Amino acid sequence: MPEVKLIITIDGPAGSGKSTTARCVAKRLGYVYLDSGALYRAVTLAALRRQVDFQDADALTAVAGTSDIQLRSEGGDMNVYLDGENITRAIRMPEVTRAIGPVSGNRDVRTILLERQRQMAAVGGIVAEGRDMGTVVFPEAQLKYFMLATIEERAKRRQKDLARLDINTDIETIIEEMLKRDRDDSQRDTSPLRCPPGAVEIDTTKLSIDQQVDRIIEDAVRMGAKTMNPEVIIDPDAGFCPGVKRAIKLIDEELTHGDLVAIGPVIHNQRELQRLSEKGLKTVPQETISDKVDSNLQAQKVLIRTHGIGPDIRQRLQQADLQIVDATCPIVKKVQKMVVDFHRQGYQIAIIGKKGHAEVLGLLGHCDHQVVVIASESDVESLDTKRKTLVLAQTTIGKKKYDHLLEQIKKRVPDVVAHDTNCRYISERYDQVGEFARSVDVLIFVSGKESSNAQVLFDICRQQNKNAYKIESTEEINSQWFKHAGRIGISGAASTPGWQFDQVREYLLCDLSLR
After folding, report:
1. For burial by CB atoms within 10 Å, which of 52, 380, 436, 474 has the most?
2. Spatial distance between the Cα atoms of 273 and 271, rounded to a whole number of angstroms
3. Rounded CA gap, 312 and 324, in Å?
4. What distance in Å separates the CA atoms of residue 375 and residue 402, rounded to the nearest whole number?
5. Cα distance between residue 351 and residue 403, in whole Å
6. What is the pTM of this model?
């Protein structure tokens, strides 16, 4: 059967599930998503901003006719623009909801917006949702649906939607506004809300979004529509940080000349460690040289990893006449020097970081282990309030945590010199990975299980996208994650190699047949 481009309409009252379902269906089919309610909300917002009298029908018509309203698909989402300004969030504010009645009931406004909507669907391939899509706007639609749900369930859904926009409204107020909107929509003279002729009624009260979408997709495929294979993209900013990139390049070069022994794991990624091991890299615990150099290391070439080591350990390596390959991150070296300088001046050293982290252990060695590690607010109590204090950051701890704990330190210690030694690359990644997570339907976060940086980044991803999954290898991927995805993103930590992102993408496109 040749592929057809359908017009699918989904009508129903507010909170019935039509908006989310329509978006998912559109993504799954590769269709345009038309949110008719957004158009009316945009006109309402424009009228509010122009301080128009909502009882003046002609004035509302003039607003609709002179406002440049556009729906744009951006990053897999539909955004609404009014005269060039993104108003996607603004049109969901309670004041717009309360004022929309006279706009949606205005016959001339509806005529203007009706023409705009029909132009969008001229060639088919559209999923339109609203309150008169199947009755007035697209009566010729091949598939029509009318969604229902109890008022209590609808109100709960709307409350959650508003909460995601940081709008807090009590459930009673939402129910009251919904009931009023239902009355206005069903009793208006122009295009009243009703089930379109030939439409399939779906009670969504106890149905999941997946169940709703599956029902419509099955009907569409039966009529000749083809589901769209999702786009699979790799986060352009993901991968090795400059320090790790430098270290891995150095290791690869050294391994071409013979074996190399690393003091501690060079990276928190088992797959990359396995690759390097197969090339000849050996790893020994740092404890091996805590008191003396193990005799097995004699005449070996040893690597200092990016986290760095203390001068006492370095001295033992030198006394053992070992050839040292130093891969310490340049930023970490600067922090080490700062610790040495301030310790000599008598400062108390406070490191905001993770206790036991390799970088922190290395810094301890640069000031006779006289450091207070601040991992939480309770650790601030350990500081000597009478001493001048230098406050630094573990380079991967994150600016948000650093700023919070620094504020607590300043409340307790009067004489503080603070230097935010967070790696700029890592700090920027926090914003970048959050933005990338928002731009996709499903996010696969690839990293080793031991990386603290990975966990911080992944937590940010989950805050921005509930469909974010952390994996170490393709064996952990579940095909059900991508059931209704139109855009799949792959990202990872500063310790995740680029080849691993490519491997995951190839797996999705080939082994899971998402191509």
Report:
1. 436
2. 5
3. 14
4. 10
5. 12
6. 0.59
Residue 70 has pLDDT above 70, yes or no: yes
Q: Which residues pair with 210 in a beta bridge?
A: none
- The per-residue DSSP string of 412-465 comes to H-SSEEE-----HHHHHHHHHHHHHHHTSSEEEEE--TT-HHHHHHHHHHHHH-
Q: Which two tokens stand for residue 368?
A: 């006779």
Q: Which residue has the tokens 């009793």?
A: 187
Strands 348-352 vs 442-446: parallel, antiparallel or unpaired: unpaired
| Alpha carbon distance 325, 246 (integer Å) | 12
Q: How many helices (H) does the chain have, and how many strands (E)?
A: 18, 20
The CA distance from 264 to 239, in Å, is 21
The CA distance from 268 to 245, in Å, is 13
- Give CA–CA dist 447/429, Å, rounded: 15
Q: Are 360 and 394 in contact (CB under 8 A)?
A: yes
d(CA 227, CA 215): 13
Contact 82, 68 (CB under 8 A): yes
428-444 pLDDT per residue, tens: 888 899 999 999 999 99
Mean pLDDT of 314-342: 90
For residue 396, what pLDDT is reported?
Answer: 86
The pLDDT tens digits of the residues spanning 84-100 come to: 999 999 998 989 989 99
Sign of the torsion formed by the C-alpha atoms of 96, 158, 488 and 143 = negative
Closest C-alpha among 94, 101, 147, 141 to residue 118 = 141
Identity of the amino acid at 289: I
> Could you tell me how far CA 352 lies from the centroid of its own chain?
26
Q: Which residue has the tokens 């905001």?
A: 352
The C-alpha R_g of the chain, in whole angstroms, comes to 30
- Give the residues across from 442 on adjacent strands: 488
Bridge partners, 393 (sequence order): 352
Report the amino acid identity of residue 502.
D
Q: What's the burial of 420, exposed, middle or buried (CB within 10 Å: 0-12/13-18/19+)? A: middle
Closest CA to 27 of 164, 120, 125, 162: 125
- Strand 389-393's sheet: what is its strand order? 371-374, 348-352, 389-393, 416-418
Q: Which amino acid is at 75?
A: G
Distance CA 29, CA 49 (A): 37
